[in-house]
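Lay summary. Proteins are chains of building blocks that fold into shapes, and those shapes determine what they do. In this project we predict the shape from the chain. Here is one chain we studied, written as its sequence of building blocks.
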Amino acid sequence: MTLATHEPLLTMARSALEQIEPLAAQGWAPAQSIARQLRWCVAWASGQPGPDRPGPFSMGLIATRELDMYGDRPELAELINRIQQEVERALA
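And here is the predicted shape, written in a compact code that computers can read:
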């Protein structure tokens, strides 16, 4: 996969990160975990050297539980799940 093909993923990850960062800044632990994983995805998709991958991705599960099942942000949960799927597919 070339960097050019990562552009849609990069756009999605930046959008999700922009939405989750205010929640993370408030100290909400689930959002902090999602934000950490999304930051890695943004760095990877943009071709920037960054920290090592933050272990197995769990942001989709966290987002589904916290933003969809028990929250009011199902669209954001869906976006985060899509990002996770795309990154995992690209890394496979």
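What the prediction tells us: The mean pLDDT is 92.
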